[in-house]
Model the fold of this input.
Amino acid sequence: MTMKSWKPRSKNIMIYRLRHATTYEYAEPVVLGTHFMHLLPRERPGQTIREAQLDISPNPDSRRNETDHFGNATTTISLTTPHKEFIVSLSATVEVCQPSPPTPEDAPRWEAMAAYGLQDVSVAEFCLPSPLARPTGEIADYATLSFPPGRSALTGLLELNARIWQDMTYRGGVTNNATTAAQTLNSRVGVCQDYAHLMLACLRALGLPGRYVSGYLRTLPPAGQTKRRGADQSHAWISAWLGADTGWVDFDPTNNLLVRDEHVTLAWGRDFQDVSPLRGIILGGGRHSLQVNVDLEPVLT
Amino acid sequence: MPILQCTRTPWNTAWHSVKPVRMHAEAPCDELIDRSGRIRPVWVPVISAVRDLGAPELERRCIALNHQMQMAAPFGATAARHYDPLPAPLTAAEFAVLEAGLQQRATLLGRMLEDIYGAQALLSGGKLPPALVLGNAHFQRSLHTRAPLTMPRLGLYAADVLRGPDGRFQLLRDHTGVIPGLGHALALRRLAAGTVPEFFRSGGLRSLRPTREMLVDHLQRHAQGGLVAVLSAGAANPAAARDMLDDALLARALGVLLIEPGDLATRHGALHMKTLSGLLHVATLIRGLSGIDLDPLEQGGRPVAGIPGAFGAIRAGVLNMLNAPGSAILETADLAGYIPPLFMEMLGSAPILPQAGADALGLASKAPFLSGGNLISRPLFFRLYAWHDGQGWQVLPGGIGLGLAEDSAPGAVAIKDVWVQEADEPQMFAGATPAEPVSRPAFLAAAHLPSRVADNLFWLGRSVERLEAAARLLLLALPRLESGTSLPRDVAERGLIARCLVQAGLLPEELAGGAVSGRLLRGTLARRRPMAGLLKEVARLVNAASERLSPSMLATVQFALHQAAEALSNEETALPTLLGFAATFAGIAAENMSRDGGWLFLEMGRRLERGETLARNLASLVAAPVERLEPGLALGIELADSVLSYDLRHAGILAPAPVLAMLLADPGNPRSLAYQCNALRSCLERLGADDDAEFARVLQQDAVNLAGVTAELKAPLEDIGARLRQLSDRVHRRFFTLLPEAHQLDDDEELEAAQ
Done:
């Protein structure tokens, strides 16, 4: 495939201070806990981790840091001292400098993406259905409206991003971690995760590669802009592949944004299940309550 | 074709006449007869033994073989297939080709697997389509480590091979995930040698033993003192089971434990099994269940159905799995077509075993099988096994032959043992060598008894005792409730009986208030069927504990259970039959079980149940002023089955002191409270539970002392009952509840909180 080489037009480096604390409080002591976490931010083109650390209380008996299939950082810990409170706090300094995407005229036509995606080992699996982002006939119909033959992939993506943002109602507590894209298209309501799954299923219905990105959105918007949805919490959006030259470009359908320098990436996968931030198997504990605090603030340089 | 008929005519002619030799190359071969119509030499000794035995005898042997297999089945599973006593012999030359073919193919598949979970050069180089691999349900992202594990991901391999019309072998399919039938391959020989020793007389057969022992040695050496076990789905999750009979046979043949996910726990990132002596490190698991959804920690799902932390342990090199989860990807039909070109690409040689075409099964060679004493000819394929010894692939000189229905419909209908000849000389060897010595599993210390099994045996002991006590109580109650005299003594006695029935759960509390008649009790029993419920619970626990009962013991118990269940509908014989079952069970446990490990828990369950029942019944029966104690004492003696002993000793004169002495304090009466406490103490001492043994000793002392008290026994007896329950709890905490059920930390709540 020949494609015009594309150069970033702007280079705004943003430095963020990230804090993400998760606190579980149990009614009864947990005597044993094993946890598997995707809670350390990964490196990616346009994102450098200056420093990151995960503080865990109580202190784990064993701790294993690994890199998963997608290149995300994972942490596995085991707790064998009885505890009624479990706290995981991430603090990191992250440099973000997403190159701006090509202009729509420079981006390849969407059909080319669909044709090449399956051949590339690093892209192929993101073209395929995954449990929570599985295309259906309805989803394909919905997606096709934004991708008439011959259209630039970027134009189509921006339009789809905007349509989902428009058609969906943002409401928490209606959906859960097992809600599928098909259900979301039906109900048209959900949170960032559901917006992302729907958009991914749309892309995959057309054979376009798309991946689920978990991360954070800056707490306060840039001066003069409206407050974003999904700030102050774990956020999710999608990444679409625009060919070997451009690579992956991120879209945030919850805020109708093309991701530039307000987002910090934690991990990516085919859908939420691949990057669930904190899983655990515990003995004891009884009922528990959970508190999550996220802060993503620019560091003044 | 009936065998008797064959004995009258030359064998080969008879066979020949049924199946005319066709020189056409596209007709299936016959394993028995060569193209010129002669019996192949490798079959001669077997066929002459078949002739000598005759049809009726052969049919009996066939039934015996299948019966033995059924007895080996754990958890009450039925052996679904038919086991054929006729072998599927291979010559040394034939096996040499197969051996080389399997070694070559396993080498290739092993390398492919390492690449798929490693550098993925085959994917980026276009040799395997990325979407087919990455989109495959068997591709385990969690084990894409980019680097080798401590042992090869493919450690065991099986190939289904058939003989084509040209007489050459073709590869039908690979097994790279769960290896089906290896347990059968190692066990069938021994069982067949026991049931049809005549087949083995000529000798010249390669033994499976050296290969098996090398495999065991390799596994144990690599485990470095950790446990090696076969991981089966277990009785709790039969839906996930592939072939639990095969798992059990394999564990037995290798002398390793058979365990299920619920026996395992992760501590400090490594896997452990809960045993009576605590948690033991598990180093190697031979996987009998699917690798998909195996680790609920990383993949979500119910913790009881998998092993939380298993993937992390594998990646960290503290757990080895044969085969590694995700290895079944090479079995999938999508990828099969991409494998043949890779022989040249990766090994630099053409495949020794060509891949069979789509219609190959219809042209598979045919072999004789026994059916109702007759020989019938069925299409057959071979399943052969190989294992990686750290350097290269070893091929088992045996395997199983799977017979298909005549129409070659998929799914084997019969299984037979594959023989490999030692050499290609004619089979006229002098002197018989034993075909396969009885395997002696490595010694398993009682301390290695899985807590789950001990738990099941404990409850089995309790439930059999509960069944017996209920039957005994009903036998006593029914006739007395029928006789409806209104004499004060009879009325008092009926009241006491009703009390005991309520406590035993045989009569609802609300029915016991008024006059309880025999009719009322019969009606209640017919409606609520409590005995059927108790019997069902016993049957369930027998199945759950079956791996610790010897096959003959299991068969006897199951037969007795069956009889008891049959008898339930007959009012006259039901209760005596149930008592008979309890006696059979107690007798078998006393005579057939060694006094270690499992038996101790069976015994404790029984003693605790009997002690609690006695204390509870007596507490009700003696709750009367001294002058009205007589009916209660009489019932107490009768319930404890001690009438005869009491009459002999005390000439039938009922007095409180001797009755209580006999029921509470007599150390020689197996139904006295002191006896139960003493038995419990002795079990606990042998298990090294000194503080619990002391608890039982004090309890025994108190029971003995109680016999001297005549006034107000109700409260102290209730106290003894409560302390027995306390002891039961202590046994539970100490031995069974190392691992309470884990649960998934619900991450939905995290999402809600995050939004």
